[in-house]
């Protein structure tokens, strides 16, 4: 019988908060059980195992991230949409480091296909890139370029990896400018 007041959503939300406070790897079923003052077994009525918990965190964070991106890009196109998308992505990654780390886990593709938030992510991202005249397979390649650039930059920034005296924001702005130029001049697949 589930403990009164303990729900799957509450367990996942607490895991996300713990991830942001202490790091994604610190999230365990035992750590959450301690947080709620229950035994580990009490949580298994809400999540199957640690992997299930992590997938649920990834889906929660992915939904939050795309909500912020969607709000930022609404009514924009081209470079303005790209800059808004990039800015929202970076802000979320830096504000919620544990949740953001959860979005980077590998998930079963059937879970991805069944997730409204992850489908929405693809729709918004592809919609932004179609403004550059991209279609498949170029869309997939461009998405991978954006994700690699945004993730790499955010990961380095979060760990203090940029030691040069130049302002990190200035480098970010230049990276977004460079991505815009690359997308406008995309080499089309044969």
Automatic annotation (TrEMBL):
Q: Which InterPro entries match?
A: Homeodomain-like_sf, HTH_TetR, MT1864/Rv1816-like_C, Tet_transcr_reg_TetR-rel_C_sf
Superkingdom field: Bacteria
**Gene Ontology terms for molecular function:** DNA binding
Keywords from UniProt, A to Z, are: DNA-binding, Transcription, Transcription regulation
Can the keyword Transcription regulation be found in this entry's annotation?
Answer: yes
Identification of the protein by name: TetR family transcriptional regulator
Q: Does the keyword Transcription regulation apply?
A: yes
**Lineage of origin:** Bacteria, Bacillati, Actinomycetota, Actinomycetes, Kitasatosporales
One Pfam family cited in the UniProt record for this chain: TetR_C_33
């Amino acid at each position: 019988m589930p403990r009164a007041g303990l729900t799957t959503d509450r367990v996942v939300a607490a895991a996300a908060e713990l991830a942001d406070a202490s790091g994604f790897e610190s999230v365990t079923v035992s750590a959450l059980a301690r947080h709620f003052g229950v035994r580990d077994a009490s949580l298994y009525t809400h999540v199957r195992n640690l992997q299930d918990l992590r997938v649920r965190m990834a889906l929660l964070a992915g939904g939050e991230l795309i909500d912020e991106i969607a709000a930022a890009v609404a009514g924009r196109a081209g470079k303005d949409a790209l800059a808004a998308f990039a800015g929202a992505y970076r802000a979320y990654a830096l504000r919620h480091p544990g949740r953001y780390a959860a979005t980077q886990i590998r998930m079963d593709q059937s879970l991805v296909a069944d997730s409204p938030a992850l489908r929405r992510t693809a729709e918004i991202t592809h919609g932004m890139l179609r403004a550059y005249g991209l279609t498949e397979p170029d869309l997939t390649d461009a998405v991978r370029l954006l994700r690699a650039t945004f993730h790499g930059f955010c990961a380095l920034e979060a760990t203090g990896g940029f030691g040069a005296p130049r302002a990190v924001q200035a480098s970010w702005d230049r990276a977004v400018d460079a991505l815009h130029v690359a997308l406008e001049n995309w080499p089309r697949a044969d």
